[in-house]
Amino acid sequence: MPHLSELHGASTHLAVLAVPLYALLLLLRRLGRGGSATTAWEPWVLGAALAGVVASGVTGLLVRGQSLTQLRGSAYDVGGLHFWLGLVLAAVLLGLGAARWLGRRGAPGRGLAGLWLALAALATVATVAQGYLGGRMTYEHGVGVQALGQGRRSASGAAQLRVALAGGVPAVSAGRRAFARTGLGCASCHGDQAQGERGPRLAGGRGLDDFRRAHQDGLFPSAVVTDRNFQAIDAWLKTLG
Length: 241
Fold this sequence. Notes:
Blueprint: H1 4-30, H2 36-70, H3 76-103, H4 110-140, H5 150-166, H6 171-179, H7 187-190, H8 208-215, H9 227-238
Helix pairs in contact: 1-2, 1-4, 2-3, 3-4, 5-6, 6-9
């Protein structure tokens, strides 16, 4: 079965193809090139662009929660910018679609042709930028890719914690190292002293159920971060109360 993140990636390709093509058609009309073909194809290409943006928007909202649990610290800025660019792109294309439908004709008036072309160019820039940021989230940070990306960092940090505990390092000390940005990376979201930053305050300790509810399907699945790992981290958190 396709994962929702995969469906989101698939649906965006329609917009990635249709939006620049729509801008190209408007440019050809502006230059007086293309003849009747540009008039005939323009509404269909605009419709395809709108369909792609709507489909990618709906699937994007469904998978947005992944970025909340699979990005650490400032890396979430990438996800936020990706989200807001999507809203800008949707607004621009919906505006063009509404103007096209209300006008009931293939070409805007001469006074509006430049504005339409500028909006189509803006939509193209937003599409390229959003696609780049989406690629960053997937290929650099591993959003939607369970076995790669930042999941590898979790696995490495958990392995270091297990070695420390097996070597007799006290749970509090081992938990402090695992919590750090160079360990499991918890501090990237919750602050170096668990005081709370992008993520909530953890100083004083947290229950295992809360931890699993937040991260079981994200950065720290139980197959990677065991209950014993969590107990060591929580032992250090309790010293901060």
